[in-house]
Design goal:
This protein is of the alpha/beta class and 507 residues long. It has 17 helices and 13 strands. The longest helix has 35 residues. The chain is elongated, with a radius of gyration of 27 Å.
Length: 507
């Protein structure tokens, strides 16, 4: 093999390994979503762990680069075989380790850091090794006047590979193959690259090829054996969309009638009963229904806008109850709407109009008429997307409501110190004169509050639910809100600063 051919092979390995490393980083988020959800903390932990692995791998690769050529090439080949095994093993490890770690009930940050490290640190270390070794070997072969060009070529190929891997993971692999199959493809790519390097003359040729091949096959066979025990190679998602891991679970036994629940990533996002669209089994959804009817009465036509669709539970109920309903649902993920139609009994009709855009973009479109009700129900994990809780967004909401309109939203927060909910109230007061916070009579540490921004106060302090016997929502009075504000120091959220992840449950 000529020097040019060796450099071409080295460049190909560097570029492809960089691409595979970034594919793993992007797919990691989807892989952990059914266990930890997708939040700012999750992505931060994954990126930090993968970069730490790359860094250590590059440092180890620098040590290997000073070895004799044959030893250095074999070191790179072994690192790629280990990357293949550790990447495939991540599919098994997440089934073994994640439930136990989550059951420890550690705070969110340690949990995501531990899970991410156990799964993705070693694959990132191993794939970080080839680049410095192969670059050093290419420099040794280069003419003195071509050293700079050689360094530039390897840096450029690595960067291009990272870009291609990122784009391919986000736009192609996850949507078409799913996270499980994507990682299998990456592991296979590592395996092929490692074996090709072992087969080169520099590494010893076919004589050096047999033992590594046997070791790799044995390790992957063990991964496959244990993986079958925990269904590691079965994608937990019924639909892997560009946004969510989507599942639908049959809960008919619980309700004594045909019923299904929508699961996005690891959280439920609505329960629909096939033959009773008006039966709202989630307490906060029923409260929103009651408040909407109190404040809109028999206004006709009844126009509503939903920030987020999910299972389309409340839109479905309102469309069935009112012949004059005109409901717009801004659901960013078309796959969620398709799932609701195919599996959750959402009936396509002129009364419900899905708009597959970000809700803020959809709400900002020019409209000839205003809405009677706007409902905020968009979540990433348990967190509301920051741009949907800012002063600027609430000004937009107010401009799209009629004179007697009401804005409703549910907020997941700590019961005893709901700093996020209070910060949203503090923020929304710039657009609405009256804001109410409703709390359920439960004892859970974390609960779902319902916030209502209204033109006139609700004429009740307590509302008893029909579908959930014994469940009562209490409106927090002014004195209690002042007490909480004094203790928790809520902040005004803006497009520039809206730290919703940090505010949930902060004491």
């Amino acid at each position: 093999m000529t020097s040019a051919a060796r450099n071409t092979l080295s460049l190909a390995v560097v570029g492809l390994s960089a691409a595979c490393g970034l594919v793993v980083e992007i797919v990691a988020g989807r892989l952990v979503a059914p266990y930890l959800g997708m939040s700012l903390y999750t992505w931060t932990a994954i990126i930090a762990v993968v970069l730490a692995g790359f860094s250590l791998g590059h440092w180890i690769g620098g040590l290997f680069a000073s070895r004799p050529t044959r030893t250095a090439i074999r070191s790179v080949a072994w690192s790629l075989l280990l990357a293949a095994v550790s990447t495939a093993a991540a599919l098994v490890s997440i089934r073994w380790f994640a439930p136990g770690i989550i059951a420890m009930e550690l705070p969110a940050v340690p949990t995501v850091l531990i899970v991410s490290t156990l799964l993705f640190f070693l694959p990132s270390v191993f794939v970080g090794i080839p680049s410095p070794v192969l670059t050093k070997l290419a420099l040794d072969r280069a003419e003195p006047h071509l050293v700079g060009r050689t360094i530039g070529a390897f840096y450029a190929v690595s960067a291009v590979g990272s870009i291609v891997g990122t784009l391919a993971a986000g736009f192609i692999f996850i949507s078409w193959l799913g996270s499980t199959m994507t990682l299998i493809v990456v592991a296979a790519s590592y395996l092929v690259m490692g074996l090709v390097l072992f087969a080169t003359k520099e590494a010893g040729g076919l004589t050096a090829f047999k033992a590594p091949l046997g070791v790799a096959v044995l390790c992957l066979a063990l991964v496959g054996y244990f993986g079958r025990q925990v269904l590691a190679f079965t994608d937990p998602c019924q639909v892997g969309s560009s946004y969510y891991c989507i599942r639908v679970v049959d809960v008919s036994v619980e309700f004594g009638a045909p019923a299904r629940a929508l699961i996005l990533d690891h959280l439920g996002h609505g329960i629909n009963l096939r033959d009773q669209p008006g039966k709202l089994v989630s307490p906060y959804v029923e409260l929103q229904d009651i408040l909407a009817h109190i404040h809109t009465g028999k206004t006709t036509p009844f126009r509503a806008f939903f920030v987020g669709g999910g299972a389309y539970t409340l839109p479905r109920a309102w469309a069935a109850a009112r012949a004059d309903a005109e409901i717009t649902v801004a659901e960013i993920d078309p796959a969620v709407t398709a799932t609701a139609t195919e599996l959750l009994w959402l009936v396509s009709s002129g009364r419900i109009t899905p708009v597959h855009q970000d809700a803020r973009v959809a709400l900002a479109r020019p409209r000839p008429r205003r809405f009677n009700v706007i409902v905020g129900d968009a979540f990433h994990d348990i967190v509301i997307p920051p741009h949907l809780v800012t002063r600027e967004f609430f000004a937009l909401v107010a401009s799209r409501l009629g004179d007697d309109g009401i804005y409703l939203m549910n907020v997941v927060d700590a019961r005893a110190h709901p700093r996020l909910a209070l910060s949203i109230i503090e923020t929304i007061r710039s657009a609405f004169a009256k804001v109410e916070l409703w709390q359920m009579n439960a004892t859970d540490a974390r609960t779902t509050f319902v916030l209502a921004a209204v033109r006139r106060p609700t004429p009740y302090d307590r509302l008893t639910l029909r579908s959930s016997p014994g469940v009562v929502f209490q409106r927090l009075d002014s004195a209690r809100l002042r007490q909480l504000r004094h203790a928790l120091h809520p902040i005004v959220l803006t497009d520039d600063f809206a730290p919703v992840d940090r505010l949930i449950g902060v004491e």
